[in-house]
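For the sake of clarity, the format in which proteins appear in this thesis is described at this point. The fold follows as a row of integers, each naming the local backbone shape at the matching residue. One such record is shown here in full, so that the layout can be seen directly:
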Amino acid sequence: MTRHRRHLLVALGAASVLALAGCATPAGSGTPSNPADAPPGASLGSLWPAPPEGDVLAQGTVMDVGGDVELCLGAVAESYPPQCSGIPITNWTWEGIQGSETSGDVIWGSYAVQGTYDGEEFTVTQPPIMLALYDPMPFEDPTGGEAGAGDEDALLEIQEELPDILGEAYLGSYPDNGWLWVDVVWDDGTWQDAADDDYGDDTVIIRSALHPVDG
């Protein structure tokens, strides 16, 4: 069982307990979670977004170590071969795919991939595209160019808490222009609403690495 799977099961179990207590809705139930139902100041730690419906797009490093393939959406260690931890991939083949490198039993490359994500695994549904050849659609700035309200110390304090709160869904974060920009594997708006509920709607921006194909 991967660390990602273990974290997901813990998160789902916690969400189920909270649901029974009237605090939150279990992830994957199909019913949107409401930050107002969570304990005060703990929305981001109590809620979990349901897996996306339909195909999603992602840009990252595909890492194959002895046949175990993962999609790394966060940091990649600059070793040789590189190292990273990501989402397990199913339905992956290197046949006919260009842009990969090999060292020993490790094969890797950077790609835009399309597929489905069930909260545990990413299943490829379309041939991947080398990132060097990929022309992504631009994403609108959620801040509208406006500065956030967070000061540096407050943003760094929030940043310190996030790895424990979000677990392996957390990819990274950085403060900029009064905002704390937070990258996660997947968010359908649940975590953005939770962050707004906890910290105010002018402090934290949650960015999902997975994007719906039709969105």
Q: What stands out?
A: The helical segments are 3-20, 43-46, 152-166, 190-199. The chain has four helices and eleven strands. The CA atoms of residues 111 and 130 lie 4 Å apart. The first strand starts at residue 56 and ends at 65.
